[in-house]
From TrEMBL:
InterPro entries: Olfac-like_dom (IPR003112), Olfactomedin-like_domain (IPR050605). Disulfide bonds join 133-315. It comes from Glareola pratincola (Collared pratincole). This is OLFL3 protein. It is found in: Secreted. Belongs to the OLFML3 family. Keywords: Coiled coil, Developmental protein, Disulfide bond, Glycoprotein, Secreted, Signal. One of its GO terms (biological process) is signal transduction. One of its GO terms (cellular component) is extracellular space. Residues 57-98 form a coiled coil. Residues 132-388 form the Olfactomedin-like domain. Residues 1-19 form the signal peptide. It comes from the Eukaryota. Its main location: secreted.
Amino acid sequence: MGPWRSLLLLQLLATALRAQQQQFMEYVERRLTLLEERISQWHDQSSRYSTELRDFKNQVLGMLETAEKEREAMRSEAESAAVRVDRLEREVDYLETQNPAPPCVEVDETLMEKQVATAKQRKNEKYTKLTDCSDTIASIRAMKILKRFGSTSGLWTKDAAGNSEKIYVFDGTANDTVYIFPRMREFTLFSATRKAARIKLPYPWVGTGHLVYDGHLYYIRQQGPFQVIKFNLANKTVVDSSVFPAEEQIPVFGLSPFTYIEVAADEEGLWAIYATKEDEKNICLAKLDPTSLDIEQMWDTPCPRENAEAAFVVCGALHVVYNTPLPSRSRVQCVFDVSGTLGPEDASLVYFPKRYGSHSSMKYNPRERQIYAWDDGYQIIYRMEMKKKLEV
């Protein structure tokens, strides 16, 4: 190959290389242009999104500010409503005190004749008081809600005669275990039962009519006839038991169908509140010997079972608490004094503050002059204002 042919070949190769280089540069330029367009598009979208996000943030901040103002307004309205409700409750208490509701005693000629005949038969069987207690309830001085514990129905109490600070809790209306807290502080602070001691009773209990009195637990056992069991809390043994001498017993309170016998204590000692099929309209009362569980004396009271939810005894006078089938304001509307010192027309009509539902148990503690109540699962203490019976 001559020199001119080599030169021609080099020229052809150079021309082809320049053409490829030109095409490559054009391709790169197109890709860069496309990339610049995409970057510009992303920048525009990012700017738009930033603007929308800023607008949304400002909108949310405005809504939060409005919600905060509305919350403050609602809180103020709620506080104002609570003040008005408290004022209304005080006014209702005043009106109810000034205009007491008529006692729910049905006028029954047959019942009146029966009561007169019974009174004639017992005219010489006067109750001999063991103490000089002559007080009666004038009003509820204060109320303290301790906590909410356990079932909607139950019982909590202290020893009504001893100096122990232990709290005894019967959760529910049928069980065989009693919870014991060492003091009120432990019962108030701890919601779980793991902080409480447990006593498993030899026989299951029923209802909410039990009582702790002078180191002994008096509880109701249902197995055939209803029995009152006396259980020593120190050595965990059954000391005595007694079958209640009443045929065909029925629930003592119309609104608490799970309680057949209510064991109560006051300054005079131990009592049993019950009802029988023989006189199913009214509540009966009996004085018990705490040592032997013997019945010392019995009374047919004029207090009706209908709409009764609980009862307790203060200074020898039975106080029956009434409500309505749809829970309303509980009230002491019937008082029966075994000594005859306090007549029904002389007793004060006492209203309990309306809070939750209705009381499944109310235990009077004569040592502290207050009531331990169980209201729809809430444990409540009522402190009472007392007066002399002759001053009412």
